[in-house]
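Quick one:
INPUT:
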């Protein structure tokens, strides 16, 4: 297990660290900013390491009294989680060409006490009857084969993550990628599943995502110094990685590459895309050494996604359709002139994705702020009929297609969850519409609070009004006995960037907050994808401040409606959501009592000004290019949390702050929260009741620590701090 605290701790500190002031002058467009803490960017400098370790020691010392509460919260999660468990088995039919050569049920299982899952398979005896998880023993099912043991792969490593996991079409070999530092650079490995032998086909320094094309060729991507996947390579099994063939290079620094195979395993799909523009190429499986063909040449502002549907293509695109439409086209299509509408554009109905099968098509969409699935049957000739949405009887939920790998399947699986319903896997029959619940994630009885009952909780949708009059949705959950009289503590979560929606879902860890009387709320602010493309456009570039004012409006609405009070309101967000937290508390510090900013993007202007930093150039279509445009520079400078930390006279009751980060994060460098915390400390005198803390995981990446028990401990640490800040009690029983 990785630890954020040095193993040989000196005498506990008596005051918070103060970063040395080493001014660096930054000038653009005649604007000057003096950055006192940019020196912390030198990751390998011993003084940087010493400062981060001093911050960790201070945070540990300041939160030591919460150890009992942390343990209680960890125990809550462990008690309610079935630690030895099994995913729903998925049937995979392995083929060589059109000939089926084997069938297996694939699933993953977890074992109590182990950090990582085991990926397994079992020969099929009855394709209509998946193995019953209740009949699995401690070692799984009789006849089971462990395809990959994450615990064995992670042995001796402080961090472990899988970046690729792909079976060869004939089922004989497994391709997988591993990252053991958290920097999202993966080493590819190939295992012969019949012999258990690890083949010499090891490929280092790849990006996430690699696929088979046929049984002898692998395709993978590599990232440049800015961590942008920009090259596509082909590897032939048995040949040295040094001889791998470069198939394609994406020269435009705004674009990145991705690779996949079609569900019918007849095509390689190569996607290139920026935030605003995309382009796809196809390569037939029987010509792995050929040149991928462009489906439609890139056109600035045209986004499209291609799905192979047998004898035709299905295309989700935004040509004259801001919320996108679904079209079909011949396999030989070469431009939008070949696209024929299937589901025409409907303003406010955002078409997100499409998955094609021989007998049906599943369209993922958003309507009225909620995710949805639209099912379209196909005729014997492949034609698309009239479809219908799946309907549900809860007011708030998240539904998603689970993507059956069998192109010929007559059924489909989808997941369903809500703020009160644990994650559930259903299977539906396309012809009859009949649904069958295959599994609902178990929530075990708690030793104190007893069994989980959804009727003990209430979920509801509220609407706040932003300063410009826009109505902003809030998803809310609380115990049924909580009264809206202003006394309940509340945690408000937000994100609001990249058109990523924060949809309502169930969390076992969240039950620990609800048991303690918390109200939990999600602010669906502009910049996210909850309400269509316009919702996103109204929270990016020169409209980004709407994201922050929306969040403050949601917080004020919760207080006005009696769901909490300002002195019992906490806020949380991660990555771009950490930017939201930093900007919102600068905008309205009096609204929040405490905030947790996880891997927070709090120094955006410094980052976006440097095209040499990882992922910067591709971000210009999200935030604007301050390097070239003084208007963008001034706008970003006006909201960047690091540059706008208020002095104590301007905001005497600035909330308590916990910033968490990881040393090897390549998406938001540790330096951003480190600088932010240093500037907060310099601007404000230390207050015991409003601490400013930084916690850095020294062996992790953007997603935090790896391993489920490590992740539970991290969650328990963060929750304990928030509970203590807004309730004033750090004892386990409260």
């Amino acid at each position: 297990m990785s630890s954020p605290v040095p193993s040989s701790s000196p005498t506990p500190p008596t005051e918070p660290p103060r970063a040395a002031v080493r001014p660096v002058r930054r000038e653009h467009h005649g604007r000057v900013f003096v950055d006192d803490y940019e020196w912390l960017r030198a990751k390998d400098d011993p003084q940087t390491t010493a400062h981060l370790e001093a911050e960790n020691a201070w945070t540990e010392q300041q939160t030591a009294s919460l150890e009992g509460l942390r343990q209680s919260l960890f125990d809550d999660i462990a008690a309610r989680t079935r630690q030895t468990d099994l995913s729903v088995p998925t049937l995979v039919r392995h083929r060589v060409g059109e000939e089926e050569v084997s069938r297996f049920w694939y699933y993953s299982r977890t074992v109590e006490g182990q950090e990582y899952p085991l990926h397994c398979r079992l020969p099929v005896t009855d394709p209509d009857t998946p193995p019953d998880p209740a009949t699995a023993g401690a070692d799984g099912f009789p006849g089971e084969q462990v395809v990959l043991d994450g615990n064995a792969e992670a042995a001796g490593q402080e961090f472990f993550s899988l970046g690729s996991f792909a079976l060869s079409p004939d089922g004989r070999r497994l391709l997988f990628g591993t990252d053991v530092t958290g920097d999202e650079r993966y080493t590819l490995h190939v295992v012969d599943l019949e012999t258990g032998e690890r083949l010499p086909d090891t490929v280092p320094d790849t990006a996430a995502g690699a696929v088979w094309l046929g049984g002898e060729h692998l395709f993978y991507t590599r990232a440049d110094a800015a961590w942008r996947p920009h090259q596509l390579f082909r590897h032939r099994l048995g040949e040295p990685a040094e001889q791998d063939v470069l198939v394609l290079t994406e020269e435009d620094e705004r674009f990145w590459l991705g690779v996949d195979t079609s569900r019918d395993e007849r095509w390689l799909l190569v996607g290139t895309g920026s935030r605003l523009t995309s382009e796809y190429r196809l390569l037939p499986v029987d010509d792995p050494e050929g040149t991928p063909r462009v489906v439609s040449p890139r056109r600035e502002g045209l986004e499209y996604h291609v799905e192979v549907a047998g004898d035709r293509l299905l295309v989700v695109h935004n040509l004259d359709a801001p919320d996108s439409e679904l079209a079909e086209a011949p396999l030989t299509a070469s431009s939008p002139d070949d696209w024929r509408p299937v589901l025409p554009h409907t303003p406010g109905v955002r078409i997100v994705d499409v998955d094609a099968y021989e007998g049906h098509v599943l369209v993922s969409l958003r309507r009225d702020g909620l995710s949805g699935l639209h099912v379209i049957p196909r005729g014997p000739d492949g034609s698309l009929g009239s479809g219908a949405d799946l309907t549900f009887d809860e007011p708030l939920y998240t539904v998603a297609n689970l993507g059956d790998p069998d192109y010929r399947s007559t059924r489909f699986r989808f997941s369903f969850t809500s703020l009160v319903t644990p994650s559930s896997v259903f299977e539906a029959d396309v012809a009859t519409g009949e649904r069958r619940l295959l599994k609902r994630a178990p929530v075990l009885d708690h030793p104190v609070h007893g069994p989980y009952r959804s009727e003990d909780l209430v979920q509801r949708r509220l609407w706040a009004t932003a300063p410009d009059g826009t109505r902003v949705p809030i998803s809310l959950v609380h115990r049924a006995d909580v009264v809206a009289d202003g006394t309940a503590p509340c945690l408000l979560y937000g994100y609001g960037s990249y058109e990523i929606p924060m949809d309502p879902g169930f969390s076992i860890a969240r039950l620990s907050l609800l048991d303690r009387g918390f109200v939990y709320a999600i602010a669906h602010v502009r910049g996210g994808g909850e309400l269509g493309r316009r919702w996103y456009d109204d929270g990016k570039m020169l409209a980004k401040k709407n994201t922050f004012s929306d969040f403050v409006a949601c917080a004020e609405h919760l207080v006005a409606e009696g769901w909490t009070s300002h002195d019992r309101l906490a806020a949380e967000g991660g990555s771009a959501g950490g930017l939201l937290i930093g900007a919102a508390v600068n905008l309205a510090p009096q609204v929040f009592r405490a905030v947790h900013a996880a891997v927070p993007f709090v120094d955006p202007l410094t980052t976006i000004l440097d095209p040499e930093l990882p992922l910067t150039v591709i971000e210009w279509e999200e935030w604007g290019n301050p390097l070239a445009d003084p208007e963008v520079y001034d706008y970003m400078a006006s909201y960047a949390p690091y540059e706008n930390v208020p002095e104590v006279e301007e905001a005497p009751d600035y909330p308590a702050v916990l910033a968490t980060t990881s040393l090897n994060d390549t998406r938001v460098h540790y330096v951003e929260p480190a600088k932010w915390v240093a500037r907060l400390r310099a601007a404000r005198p230390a207050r015991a009741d409003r601490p400013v803390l930084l916690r850095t995981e020294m062996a992790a990446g953007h997603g935090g620590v790896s391993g489920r028990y490590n992740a539970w401990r991290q969650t328990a640490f963060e929750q304990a701090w928030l509970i203590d800040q807004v309730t004033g009690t750090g004892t386990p029983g409260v």
